[in-house]
Amino acid sequence: MEAIIHQLADVQTVHIGAGTHVWQFTVILKDAKIGIGCNINCNCFVENDVVIGDQVTVKSGVQIWDGVTLEDYVFIGPNATFTNDYVPRSKVYPGKFERTLVKRGASIGANSTVVAGVTIGEYAFIGAGSVVTKDIPPHTVWYGNPARHKGYITKDAILLNLQLVDPLTGDQYAWQDNEIKK
Fold this sequence. Notes:
The protein is mostly beta strands. The chain has no helices and 25 strands. Keywords: Acyltransferase, Repeat, Transferase.
């Protein structure tokens, strides 16, 4: 099976694995490498020095810049973005862009920003709207701005020792027996 590329996508690379879907209004530059069985939703941008593994989901509105690697089974939520330069300036480019690695099975929630040069560990979970400014250990849950460690997660997405605080009331909740309890 070949890759399935929407006629309104601008895909310049030939390095796309079998069964990968690329949706409309997505741009993928010529040196990007994308594995098998991926789903790259509409309105995404994938720069040249990007590697995307197998079975990766990239939701709508995501930008993946030079220096980013997404390993197998990674999930990137809608409108998440990556950076690759600590001190960006118009028309001033670093000698090399920072490397960012999202390891196998990690999930990054909608509208999150991943700052250049970090590694997000295997099966880690980044909550929606978070700003990741440092390395994230495997099997951990982080959220907020900046993202802070809030708990642990298994490969099968079972949350462990998760503490939630309602930002309006200050009420604290805990994840117990597969449900949130006050």
